[in-house]
Write a structure and sequence with these properties.
About 70% of the residues lie in helices and about 0% in strands. It has about 250 residues and is mainly α. α2 runs antiparallel to α3 and α5 crosses α6.
Length: about 250
């Protein structure tokens, strides 16, 4: 199931792994595998990428980063094909993403002479980028009755769905709010009226999709194999300026 109706689809540069993710999900449709199992798989892939970064195996690191990105899409696809959405999977996915992102950047900091402050600020920038992309994307999905499994901002603990435990949802939602709350508030402060503005044009959403985690991991992978490891953290810190550029475009024209 597409996340947007066909008429409003845009080229999502961060979603390059979707075709393979669908193949994985369809291959697991009639098995006992659950979306949470796939999420655990991408967590393991992320840790393998971290190990390879620390050991200097950059081609292998790139492979596991891309594989992690594909599995990150496959867990949601499997939830859709099995028609078993869950808040446990939804929040576990997000919590795992932000923790792995922090560890990716710390690993790159460890093997370079980059300042720890550049690492911290680059990580904050990375998360702001991803939050802006998700903010605008979910607004579109809600407007056009696409996939509405995500809310624009998560503010209240949801009621567990059939097959999952409320205590698991409570714990994971609390972690989600702790880790993402400040980024959500920052993006909302920058553009609080986005949900009542005009429809975002496809070219703008395609541009903002460079903030998607899949594309971010692709950039890290390419820079690692090209021997540009020392530029990764400064790049993401500098690219954060585009958050203000895209918000400015949205406010002025849409």
């Amino acid at each position: 199931m597409s996340k947007l109706p066909k008429k409003h689809k845009f080229i999502d540069l961060s979603d390059y792994g979707r075709p393979i993710a669908r193949l994985i999900a369809n291959s697991l449709k009639n098995t006992d595998a659950t979306p949470v199992h796939v999420t655990i798989g991408f967590i393991l892939a992320g840790f393998m990428a971290i190990y390879c970064i620390l050991q200097g195996y950059f081609w292998l690191a790139a492979f596991f980063l891309i594989f992690k990105s594909i599995l990150d899409a496959a867990d949601g696809e499997l939830a859709r094909v099995k028609q078993k959405p869950s808040y446990t999977g939804r929040f576990l996915d997000s919590v795992a993403d932000i923790i792995l992102n922090a560890l990716f950047f710390l690993s790159i900091w460890y093997i370079t002479n980059t300042s720890i402050w550049v690492c911290i600020l680059a990580f904050i920038g990375l998360q702001l980028q991803g939050t802006l992309y998700n903010y605008y994307y979910v607004i579109l999905r809600n407007k056009f009755d696409g996939d509405t499994t995500s809310r624009i901002f998560e503010t209240k603990t949801p009621i567990a769905l059939q097959g999952e435990k409320q205590e698991h949802v409570n714990v994971l939602f609390s972690l989600y709010k702790l880790l993402y709350g400040a980024f959500d508030k920052a993006i909302y402060f920058l553009d609080p009226k986005a949900c009542i503005g005009k429809i975002f044009p496809k070219w703008l959403m395609t541009s903002i999709s460079t903030f998607g985690l899949g594309f971010q991991l692709l950039i890290i992978s390419v820079m690692l194999v090209l021997g540009l490891k020392t530029l990764i953290l400064p790049f993401f810190l500098g690219y954060t300026v585009m958050v203000f550029v895209f918000v400015g475009i949205r406010k002025v024209f849409y």
